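User: Hey, my collaborator sent me this sequence without any context and asked if I could get a structure. I don't really work with proteins. Can you help?
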Amino acid sequence: MSEDDAGGPPTKASLPPPRAPIRFGDFTLDLDGCSLSNTDRGDIPLTRSEFALLREFIRHPGRVLSRGYLLDALAGKRPDPFDRSIDMLVGRLRHKFEPDAKQQRLIVTVPGEGYKFAVPIKAEALKLSSESESATRKPTTSPPNKQEPPRLSMVVLPFANLSGDPEQEHFVDGVTESLTTDLSRIRGGVIIARNTAFAYKGKPLDVKTVGRELNVRYVIEGSVQRGGNRMRINVQLSDAETGNHLWAERFDKPLTDLFDMQNEIVARLASALNDQLVAAEARRAEKAPTPDSMDLYFQGMAWLNKGHAPENVAQAHICFDRALIADPGNVEALIGSARADAVEGINLFVTDPAAALAAAERKLIKALSSVPDHPRGHMWLGLVDIWTKRAAEGIAECEHALELDRNLADAHANIGFGKIFIGRAEETEAHIAEGLRLSPRDTYAYIWIARVGQANLYLGRWEQAVAWYRRSIDLNRKFPYIYFVLGAALAQLGRLDEARSAIKAGLALIPTFVVTRFRTTWTAMSDDPTYQSQFEPILEGMRKAGVPEQ
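Assistant: No problem. I've predicted the 3D structure and written it out in structure-token form, which is a compact way to encode the shape of the chain:
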């Protein structure tokens, strides 16, 4: 904001004909007198900028106004994610309204979206002021007649029963209801309630019409068909604005216990849809001329979802940190930044892995102090614990994450990973299998499969380790770490030419990889004697395969 405060509020000559005072809570706003008063405190002085901001909120009660919109409407500036003047102005206005500004009773922050005036306003006064102002002033930019759908807003329409069997109707409705419930756990998501969605049951549907009526970005549709002893489930995700299909999947399952089947179907759908919705939001964010904090967060997630190659993680880190500059309170971006730190540390992408892991832990603790029930926050803190000689605590964190979100397939995989560090590598595969059951096409399946290979590596099962590592590489050829452990296993089998080729591929992706850094990082993860004894043959294999010592 330009410092127009010394000039005071606008003069009466610049205002439209007389309007009724506007009342909200214990306050009265006189648009003609340019004054605000409180029943107990009397007149409350406002600067010109504060008055203009309050007037914008009064014009759009209960609606989320983005920082970009307010910056344009009040100052005629193009939206700028690095311009914090609106936030400062909101803070000053809150200070004059609220006994405790942290309570946010009047002006509420909507994370990643903007601000909302949340106090009821007398309808008659609002009508008079809106009609009068619209006749005399046209703002630089105004919100559309219908508010733009929020990010990650969606509806799960009732799945169609294609079996022709009325007895299957209960099962089909159960899938719809359970999927609605599970998707509601998505942080920052907005999902239409079951009762509203079921008003569309049995009606001919047009995705764009549904999107407009419910003000959502995404529509999820599906069908269930029983044939013989099998059940087929089709589902698709569509963009409600364009009507385009973004993703479709089909599940064929043997007909067993319907309740167990419903749980597995819903878990798989929820996991896949979570990833697809993030990808869709990232594509939208790429088109934004001035991305805000949440746009940058989704772009960071898109980079991570490309795989844990050094350049991908570095780009993700940049996006998350820019998101935090735009909005320091963006918990999702804070967890994303912590995740990037942790991945860079454990994969030796940085010169000081211990410092990267320590930074990740600090960020995760800070995030969880704000949002204690964040499943992925607990899961990533658990993984950092596992990587820093606290595997038992890390496993407990991941188990807590699953209590908060039963569909968090990553948490199952991380528990299996943690078992390696407490000398129970033989248990790893079962936990990874559970993660893959819930999310068989997960973005990070290549990492989970590599961890099964790692468990076999620690157990000295070189052939099995090689087979699992080859499967992982088939899914993602740009994950550097996998080539070094593959080389170690091949060397221990005496297949030195293959081993050296694997190491050459790994060094092409991360040239700084050396035995001493790997040993320092990975031996520090656990004091368990079984783990320590299993580690030495791996180092021996790396040396045979040609990994530089230092």
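In plain terms: Residues 1-18, 123-145 have pLDDT under 50 and may be disordered. You can pass these tokens on to your collaborator as they are.
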